[in-house]
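pinning this so it doesn't scroll away 📌
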Amino acid sequence: MTDRPSRRPPPLAVALWLAGLLPILGCAIAAARISPSQTNAWLNPLLFYSALALSFGGGVHWGFALYPNASIPSDGDASKPRLPGLVIGILPLL
């Protein structure tokens, strides 16, 4: 048996990720339940927060792609940047 690092995120990271979904869900529910004249009051924060969350996730992908030795290498040369990580990281901004 090998002592391989776990690929599962720590429980605190999962809890914080789930907590980060609360503003998205709250704004979406509020926008769907209020009068149409007030929908923009909830849709704008929903869009801005969603864009911020996606950009943060993209930054994480870029970090792992540019510093591949910080993560568990999946295949190939661990010292080269991983192109898929760079592409996935920029998609939310595009």
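📌 and the second one:
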Amino acid sequence: KNVEKANLLYNYLDNSDFYHATAEVGSRSLMNVPFLTKYSDGEKDEAALAKEKEINDKFVKGAAAEGLVNLAGHRLVGGMRASIYNAMTLDGVKKLIAYMDKFANENK
């Protein structure tokens, strides 16, 4: 079940033009899936850093409103991190992906 959940989320990330996983394929965790938005790419001037923080905060707050909590990434790395431990159901991962898709479409 954990492989199925992780594969579903990683496949979504790998085929997205808005998000991308931060871990290389051979080093990916089945439990913690860190990811970034397209706003994390490119030069890191002040404006880009501000936009990245704004979009990440907006993502996390919107997710929480949908009942998807604790998605903020590591405080030093930023981005987001989905923890899909045993208690997370396949339907929960599908709900996360549906939110991610909606968010991406609204913020491209």
